[in-house]
């Protein structure tokens, strides 16, 4: 931690700051510039957490030097993590595809989709049973009934299954039926839910919040891992910007940035990011080329009949065509698929 | 709802769209332009909710004409609402000030603050017992113990009290101690929590999400009101932008926009929006001048000792000076204070 | 300037950095932390401008300590500036209102407006002769003919006049007719134009760029002042965000932020910021309450007939009503008007 | 164009609107809904440009149906354009790489780079002679001297050369030395410069503005093409968002969006978008996979010695390694390289 003093800070003000630092058992290094004085803090800065040094007389600003997340930080865990979900392993050797409908609508819809996406190469079946919807008057999901269809589809196909949870109650229920839970963009800072997901020990897909920085996202993952659950996969799904020709702006730079900062796998969801079916294929390829460990793609037997997010869903044929096209990209990236 | 067809849409495609609309018992109005054909839908568009018209052949895009929120919409409830919280009434006749510490730290800290802010003119005491914090290693709040201090402060001063709730459990607990609950920016789309807040019947302060549009915010309020609870106050607290000289960008335009779209009261929180103490006073005055029904301001007996958000907190003296300065602005705005 | 080394930086790497700093005649202060080493640079950091220290082995990042703008910086010029424009003086004692049509359309339109806005209290007449328009097929302005009408209106009313310039040619021409030139949001980083505006010596109204940080804005002003022209007034006019219910998001926090960082006056343009007539009045009052030195407001004899930006223009009656309402706000802010 | 009336609009108000439309020789189609009335306008809407229909009594809002750009619009020119620059042809069959230093520093620096990038597969040499810099105290470029080095490098290597122009003067000068001019992000709406670039007839690389929507970008291109110059290549270079771990947020979705809306080629600049050398390679591959027609990449003989943007520049070895890795991606995309 570095403390930058104001240009007109008095010697007394500087001394008060260094005294405060030393009173906590830390060391203060002074660097007196021609315009400003800088104080470096040496030692465990959490000892200063309650000191509000920003408010001390003569202090201009505080610059943190180390990240606030630890267990998900690559600095302390340099090798990439492998996360097992059912028979799938998400990590640097594989391109893992999660596919399925935005919302589960019926047993048949889900099972048909499961069979189709498995055939095309998906390793994990996705499907929403609890739908977070902007308006209370939109379809909210089949809830536990949908989870039962998930379990049936898993048994029938051997695919691992993932479902979003939007509350502690949904988390408890889903734990009985699925292999992996998803925490969606709107709940990325629902800290209660993150902690419970941590306690559950289940693999967690943590989507980036709509306006979350990468550091906030990694701190959200830290909530899960600090409860003892290291089974976390991150998912970039677009951030909110002023551009309106896509639903969100897919931030593919997040893939190499996460790779540099964390050991956790990161996948990409081009369906929600763009909201437009014809952009899913080019951005899926781009994600693999950027180094993503997997993709989450919406597939529906009849997008025009879907109760939720039809416009961005692929048909079975679209999806099969896409996975065929992705194979050489996976190979170039050194990934099995 | 208006359906804009593609320039090359065939007559058959247009007919399929109008047939679909009419099959749901609605009427379709055709408008054939020189370049494109437009189809207007007359009737209750929710009957089309599951139709995914965007995907029909030849459709370019769908333009919604009416808002998805109803009960909070000014169109259907033209007069402004008055929300009672303890002895306070939030609405067009009054400037209601909510003040107190970011986090409750002790019985004495809270009680001292309650006495000071009451003396300076605040009507409601705020204080955080459940703190949503970016890092799991930051102070998370005193929880129920803090709520007990809240109740004590209410009994001692007669002030109404408000506390943020971050989970269903916190909501249930808080309901026993406080007059109004706050749903914070990070939980604005925690729909489970919104529904429960609706069922509780308690007055709710609904903060705008960090990247929420005003329409999404009003839809979040619709979640609460559609459960039968009309006691909602909105709070603008800054949105996330690229500018870094303030913590967030306070969107004061939201005040007249909400006034035009909804009958609900709207207040402003300049403390969280800016994150900088010296900007709180000018933006408080600006909020009142823009038409806000109230303010939420952080006050702490010793900001430099605060466990959370010290840099933006006012001292008792600062706050007393501010409320004195606000009086003529309230008067100009036609509000008692 | 502070250099933060990587956690695994070798002693040799640190030595190379300090040697480089000292080879330029500066001093390097070492601060060895438990996790990272920090190097403070003492002396004139511009001597290091070409060194690309970010790329030296072992360097994690560079933190600048002082701002890159000097002459507009309050640190080196603590008292607020007063800028004279014709008979008007923009500064801390006065509320200066600039009003007029978005685009100049005819001699009569401009003169009628000049008379009306002068009567209502405006000190400066605005009007666009060179219009930057998103589409090449939109009305682009009357150019020099419009400037002549400006001069006529000035002679007839005694008002000072301001016009936007969008090119060196427009700047040269406008210099013959107007008292103040405006550099618009789209040209805030048209550095050639900024330098020429600096050389002209004319008072300059510098609007904030659509996505400019406050620091970039002040650096743009530094381009003008560093050519010897200190006659600069800043104008906040809304920034681009994801919110669509207003054209841009008016960042009123910019007013106190500029006040803290610079001695230059700052005014606010609520017409362009919101794009909606009925939001102009509440945000004008808010701007004055936040401490703005003036306002720029669009007024048109017949907004429904305007060739440009009619929806946000006030009628003469609207404007007269607004200035009447602003008087007590100006008085509260300690400003003549 | 569609006009949505307010729920309480009177019959007279609707009639006035339709009368106005018909008075311009257009046709108005009425669609009376249960809540609102909608008026479709049939005919050439530019006839209504000066009518400010938004302001007519009873009008809620106007929804445009057709884009304001015409000549760059794919609807009116369905086949992709091929743009010749020296010996290079930018278009669907080729991956065109533009590479070179951010700023031209010396004849030797530029020539060495030209030879290295040609060897590695670049078709066009880039180099900045006029540098738009945030601060007036940063290095501003060698100007015409730099352009002479450009011409030398072209003669020595046969590469086509491109240079950014920041003013009409720079454009005139550059036209004597280079094969293609670049209009940078900060000048994307410098309409004077766009028009002159249009008149010059030279191939133009038009970078996307920092906060420009894709529609504004295409309208900027329309300024060039409407002056008779169809030789335009678009360049996505990152947009401004709240995320700070990269300099800007690269919006790769822009590639398929442009492909859908326009016939112009689009390339990607991952160097400026990220500002970080190690992110250039993964995002270059991603851009090719997303369908980009080319890349613009910064290369410098000694990034640590660069006068501008060293941190994002590749060394010759880095660049050679990158182009080797890009070859199979180009092949997958069906492009020669």
From TrEMBL, chains A, B, C, D:
Gene3D superfamilies: Aldolase class I, Phospho-2-dehydro-3-deoxyheptonate aldolase, domain 1. The keyword Disulfide bond does not apply. Transmembrane segments: none annotated. Its EC number is 2.5.1.54. InterPro entries: Aldolase_TIM, Class-I_DAHP_synthase, DAHP1/KDSA, DAHP_snth_FXD, DAHP_syn_2. Residues 87-327 form the DAHP synthetase I/KDSA domain. It holds the Pfam family DAHP_synth_1. The keyword Mitochondrion does not apply. GO terms for molecular function: 3-deoxy-7-phosphoheptulonate synthase activity; aldehyde-lyase activity. Residues 1-67 form the DAHP synthase ferredoxin-like domain. NCBIfam families: DAHP_synth_Bsub, PRK08673.1, PRK12595.1. This is 3-deoxy-7-phosphoheptulonate synthase. It comes from Candidatus Lachnoclostridium stercoravium. The gene is aroF.
């Amino acid at each position: 931690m570095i403390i930058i003093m104001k240009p007109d800070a008095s010697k007394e003000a500087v001394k008060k700051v260094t005294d405060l630092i030393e009173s906590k058992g830390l060391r203060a290094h002074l660097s007196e510039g021609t315009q400003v004085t800088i104080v470096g803090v040496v030692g465990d800065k959490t000892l200063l957490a309650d000191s509000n040094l920003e408010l001390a007389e003569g202090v201009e600003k505080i610059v943190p030097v180390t990240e606030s997340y630890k267990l998900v930080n690559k600095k302390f865990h340099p090798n990439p993590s492998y996360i097992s979900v059912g028979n799938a392993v998400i990590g640097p050797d594989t391109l893992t595809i999660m596919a399925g409908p935005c919302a589960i609508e019926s047993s048949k819809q889900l099972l048909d989709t499961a069979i189709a996406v498995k055939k095309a190469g998906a390793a994990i079946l996705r499907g929403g049973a609890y739908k977070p919807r902007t308006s209370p008057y939109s379809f909210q999901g089949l809830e536990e009934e949908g989870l039962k269809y998930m379990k049936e589809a898993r048994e029938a196909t051997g695919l691992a299954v993932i479902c979003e949870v939007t509350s502690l109650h949904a988390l408890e229920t889903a734990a009985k039926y699925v292999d992996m839970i998803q925490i969606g963009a709107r709940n990325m800072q629902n800290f209660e839910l993150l902690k419970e997901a941590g306690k559950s020990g289940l693999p967690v897909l943590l989507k980036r919040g709509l306006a979350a920085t990468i550091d906030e996202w990694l701190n959200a993952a830290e909530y899960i891992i600090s409860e003892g659950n290291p089974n976390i996969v991150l998912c970039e799904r677009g951030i909110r910007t002023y551009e309106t020709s896509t639903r969100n702006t897919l931030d593919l730079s997040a893939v190499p940035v996460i790779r540099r900062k964390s050991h956790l796998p990161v996948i990409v969801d081009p369906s929600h990011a763009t909201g437009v079916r014809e952009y899913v294929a080019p951005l899926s390829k781009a994600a693999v080329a950027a180094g993503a460990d997997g993709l989450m793609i919406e597939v529906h037997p009849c997008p025009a009949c879907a109760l939720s997010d039809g416009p961005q869903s692929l048909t079975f044929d679209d999806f099969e065509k896409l996975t065929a096209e992705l194979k050489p990209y996976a190979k170039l990236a050194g990934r099995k698929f």
